[in-house]
User: Fold this.
Amino acid sequence: MHTDGLLAFANSLERHLNAVVAGLSTLRKSGIIEGHVDRTKILKRQMFGRARFELLRDASRSFRT
Assistant:
């Protein structure tokens, strides 16, 4: 049985318990920011090898609200 990885994970959680609790109990959410990051990554993938930075910049402006 491979329990070494599980034990290492549990030990890491225990070492960082304060950060884990804070991350799970905070009222702030990063969903809006993650959405912007995802859209930027999709745009970058779509334009891979086709455009210079200027075109990427202009296209990314269309995502701003």
Observations:
- Residues 4-61 form one domain.
- The radius of gyration is 20 Å.
- The first helix runs from residue 4 to 15.
- The helical segments are 4-15, 17-25, 31-46, 53-61.
